[in-house]
């Protein structure tokens, strides 16, 4: 007699979802992530409050940055994790467009879910989408402008891109002011695109408009007691070395003495070792010593006697950037001064910003170096301002590398959607329906932007679609007046690199999720219980 019981190949606690159930589970998770962040999209997007728990209990963040929101939430659904990862990848690649890429991917999956219900095969959907992406990319490429040959026009493009990027951030009220700061900082890089040379310092107090750009480098540290507060023609030794006494560090060792005189002898021996190390450092012919680790009282006193400015506990990010801008190297041994490359700068002096004293390094060899000092009322405002400025700097450096620009305000999305609709009309078979679904997903971005502003999205997007069908190339939504307007005259410009990356990344993520037909969850590892008698 044949048994009708299914053969189980997985462990007892392992779980498996197949076919339609697996696909539905993936779609629901990904769409939920899109719904979570889509209210933050556009100039009128809302913010989220993120409250930390566990190790970060009591930490509060207010942000509308898609990558920050998605990094902070705990996600259990596998497809949702794919969207979180794609947002992180977008943040690493071009620095902005994280919300757009997440929302577009989730809208594609929303359309795919409808097609699956209509009994479309996933491979048919994927095939149609690939043709749609090709048509969209060609349309986007044709709509680009490149003013890199004209320095004045290119700078104006950069200012417009910075304004457009900051218009959806906390800095939107002061976007002209911060756009100029960001563009000045990026133009100092002379096309290198190395953001390491741009330092951002947050100092509480004042208002956002008190922020400023400082040429050179600022270090949030103070010199030691009785050491010089101002050094001209500085020769800087940058180190990462322990400056405590060289104690016996063998685990479990003890030193036993029979009198306090012997203790004094041990302390004297340690002091001699420390003095020998300081002498080695001074043999480099320096007048500034900056250490990643602590500098204790005795070596600090020795440096003060030698007239050397010694700065301790410089944070590692700061010390690496300092090594870059001063042209020095971080060292940990001091036996060969001739092999060590010292950092240099024309002047080091203390500078008061708000209630804090910082060390200003002026006349550094790396002329590109600059520091953007952000001021603000609360820590949350400062952190969100830093994220906003970082996004703008990343987009600007991407534009400097690839100077092509496109229009924002939903213009590029409607242009691509129109091109996909036209391509679908010339494509036979079911693939054309998948292409139309892709075009609808693209058109959802301006729809969501209009909805977040409280405008009639149906009317605006229908008007836009009609205009593009008639041959318009630069129409978008004016979010100040809530009507269709010319994006060129409004100066709403975006980086081609960001738009292209949003399109490609969203498509790849959505295609990966549509391909899923099985979710297998591994059995949890059991804790081994030791039943041996004590």
TL;DR?
This protein is an alpha+beta fold and 534 residues long.
Report on this model:
This protein has 534 residues and is of the alpha+beta class. The chain folds into two domains: 15-145 and 407-521, GROEL, domain 1 (Orthogonal Bundle), CATH 1.10.560.10; 217-366, GroEL (3-Layer(bba) Sandwich), CATH 3.50.7.10. The protein has 16 helices and 19 strands. It has helices at 19-37, 66-72, 78-93, 98-117, 122-142, 151-166, 175-188, 260-282, 297-305, 316-326, 379-401, 411-425, 431-452, 457-469, 487-490, 496-514; strands at 15-18, 48-51, 60-63, 145-146, 198-204, 212-215, 217-219, 230-239, 288-291, 309-311, 330-331, 343-353, 356-362, 370-376, 404-407, 475-478, 483-486, 493-495, 518-521. Strands 7, 8, 9, 10, 11, 12 and 13 form a seven-stranded mixed β-sheet that branches. A three-stranded antiparallel β-sheet has the order 4-15-18. The chain has a three-stranded mixed β-sheet with strand order 5-14-6. Strand 2 and strand 3 form a beta hairpin. It is globular, with a radius of gyration of 30 Å. The model has no long low-confidence stretch (mean pLDDT 85).
Total count of strands: 19
How many domains comprise the coordinates?
A: 2
Q: Low-confidence stretches at least 5 residues in length (pLDDT < 50)? A: none
- The top-level CATH class of the largest domain is Mainly Alpha
**What is the percentage of strand-forming residues?**
15-25%
Kindly identify the CATH topology of the largest domain: GROEL, domain 1
Count helical runs: 16
| Category by helix and strand content | alpha+beta
Helix content: 40-55%
Task: Let me know the largest β-sheet.
Answer: 7 strands, mixed
